[in-house]
Automatic annotation (TrEMBL):
This is Integral membrane protein. Keywords: Membrane, Transmembrane, Transmembrane helix. It comes from the Bacteria. NCBIfam families: SCO6880_fam. The chain crosses the membrane at residues 20-44.
Amino acid sequence: MSAATRIYKGLSRRERAGWIVGLTPVQALVCVGLAVPVILALAAGRFGQALGLVGLCGTVAMLVVVPVRGRPALRWLWHLLLYRTGVTLRWSRWQSRAVTGQARDLDEPDLPGVLARLRFPDGPPLRDVGRVCLIHDTGEGRWGATARLTHAGVGMLSDAQCERLANRLGNLLLSIGHREVIDRMSLLVRTVPDDGADYQAWRAEHEVADAPALARRATAELDRLVGAVSVRHEVFVTLSGTEDALRRPAAAAGGGVTGRAAVLYRVLDGLEDKLKSLGATGVKWLSGPELAVAIRTGFNPATAAGLAARRHQAGGDSGVRWATAGPVHAPEPSARAYQHDGFATVSYSVLMPEAGTVFGSLGGLLAVKTAGERRSLAIHYETLSQHRSRKAVRRLRFRTGVVRDWKSSKGFNSGAAEAREAGGARAQEHAVAAGHGIVRFAVAAAVTVPGTWNVEDHAAKLENDIAGRFQLLRMELAQDAGFVAAVLPVGLGLPRLRGGAS
């Protein structure tokens, strides 16, 4: 991805494309190994045995090679085995320690699944903002922070305005790629069913006692007609960097959590203006209690009303202790949905079209159709350094060139898809040489409804809203991790890079 959308379009590609007829080296090696017994049987003249081996080895090869909803059959079997093992040993069942009276420290995080590896230390005060909660991913060795954005949305913007915002987003990612401290940015948008709690709290404080009766009746009528179906949006951004990138400058800043916070703060200060250039009118870096509220309402949207009322009563300083930020109870997960605190969530991975997309085209995933339904959309970006970007585009150009030359030498013509890939590889190499960067990205979406509703109906509505524009892959056997990637503003959702880029 470069700073301009016109360069980005058409360059989206698989992160680990196969070298040999679209196969990875491991798949190709397995297929060659399966072909050896067939060849030996034919060489020995045992044609009946060779025919039987063709059927057996061909079936195994199909299980290894042919993808079924994003994963080959053998990988499905392996993931199913892991899933059933977790269910049988009850590793996947979870209950809050605070509910059972076993919480010793209310400031110690008590979160299920992949969230258990996160720590949330408070950094030193940042300007007049106060303390900022740092997110320490002990599994991948990353440090980050989350901000709540105030944004009016892009639904009413013209194509020219969307194009300008897309260019500014590219410039923001490009600037992140030129910094040594952070390399990931996650944008999360969550719809919030507006039950009127914030409005009622504000109205109780500002209501005029001698207001005309007609005005009161008109306001009450509007509350009944509009309030039941109104929807608000929460927008979060999470920025993070690796421990390796932070270690040396953090040591110079005093070391420990304070040193890492000081290094992150310098970057956060420099990126606030760029976030505001994307249309954000406010950027509020979250403290520990505020981030705990965002996680708590992610697990249980029904708590938003009570927390909002308590926040108004406390003058805006109220939050949630980390021991109560997670769900109260998470039963054994379903293979196709995640149950949490009386709600059910279905998560998807969103695949981008080969021809690219335009800014704001994912808005259909946030179009709530039923009062009480919540939808979430998260886009996780990782910018590669210039060295890794040049290495990635050279590898891609070399691979496409080798395949094209081999086919030409054998008398085969290259198809349109191969010609497009070769042209995209050259254009991408030119873009990187001109100073642009490569960005890995992953998009996750989710729909959440009360547990008593039929969640499959709402999942089908989500799929229908985006049909024909994007492909949705349901996060089968990993709905709990998909929930974290799509709903919670903690920056988890992009797998670790193991060679290549996209």
